[in-house]
């Protein structure tokens, strides 16, 4: 009886080996289990010893792979099919440990690891901006690399010199690149470091090479007067005066204003001081606000002073005592005196205007006249004139003008016309040609002209001749004379129109003639 017997039972691995090696591969047991159905007629006598638990030879267990396939581990003994169709479970050998009650859970499939977010780089340009007696201010720049998620903020830490106990100034990260560390003791030396924080972690901290010494840095007071305020500051009446003057000094200086050695009137002038400047404000300026104001900035006996000169101006009043001094020919002389009120500004000049009685309109004669007198000329004979004068300063013309009390009447002068005696001159002159005729060549069928000029008195008579024959009323010829210029037009000449042409001038004193030759081709 030839038949294959069932494979011997596999010895279970110890617990320690299972933890290290993992589940046994399935490939080794699967072929042995498939070999049982191939038996044609397995005798029951051979299956009985297996049921009695005969010891099976032990087989060496192959080493577990590093990454086992995802298949359930077969720790239990595989059932053996018999000839009758029933399955018999093999009994483990004596002295071998019992198989576990439940198979271990299959190992989970390892997931691909996500790339870790890199931390940001170190903050740049860490520096101390300001130090006071109990605090200091830091500034820095953002790191070059912040990561894909961006920065969550910065954490500032401090540590006293000689200690290793670092304390965070801010509990939560902040995004500002400026931080003031308060509540420090004067004289302390503080080490500082700044760390950039993001989703990938914290950066390498940026530190200062030297610790920060907490003490007040003294700075002498200095007023930085703007350039336009170094000269007189001019405003019109009713305008607002709003001036800001910066200064410097540490610790914070004390600021005081005065005018003529007296404190300012707080009902008219508002003063507001900050740590770096002072503001001088007047809502509506009046002429009484003009004057020199003294600004003083002092720190512990050291001080700096500056003067602010304010001038509030308005248009001036009209000139006084305007009068007509003299009227002669076409001229009028005027005089006046300066106005009683100059508008708190220098008088730049005067504007003089005139008005004639016929039109009643005012016309400007002089502008910016710097004297208090003037002479007006080129007046029209027979007209009556009135005059007025405005005063002018930096604000403009006065609201009203001074008008002369009288009028100036330009009278006609009585004179007799005597015509000039012109000596008689003899203008008689015989004819004389000033421009002779010139020879010409013309083309057949094209009209041509002959020109000459003559003078004489009385005006001479002009006679044209052709080949010594007088040209009379012939439509082919047109003779003209204008201002002594004589012309003869020959219309569409032919070959027979060629010859010698003569111009003769005749008057009672004589005669003159000129001739020329005309060729027709």
TrEMBL record:
Extent of Low complexity compositional bias: 1-16
Residue ranges with Basic and acidic residues bias: 25-53, 110-119
Entry's family note: Belongs to the immunoglobulin superfamily. MyBP family.
Gene Ontology terms: biological process: cell adhesion
Originating organism: Rhadina sibilatrix
GO cellular component terms attached to this protein's record: myosin filament
Pfam families per UniProt: fn3, I-set
Record key words, sorted: Cell adhesion, Immunoglobulin domain, Muscle protein, Repeat, Thick filament
Annotated region described as Disordered, given as residue ranges: 1-122
Domain Ig-like: from-to ranges: 221-309, 431-515
Protein name: Myosin-binding protein H
Role summary: Binds to myosin; probably involved in interaction with thick myofilaments in the A-band.
Statement: the UniProt record of this protein carries the keyword NAD: no
InterPro entries: FN3_dom, FN3_sf, Ig-like_dom, Ig-like_dom_sf, Ig-like_fold, Ig_I-set, Ig_sub, Ig_sub2
Name of the coding gene: Mybph
Residue intervals of the Fibronectin type-III domain: 122-217, 318-416
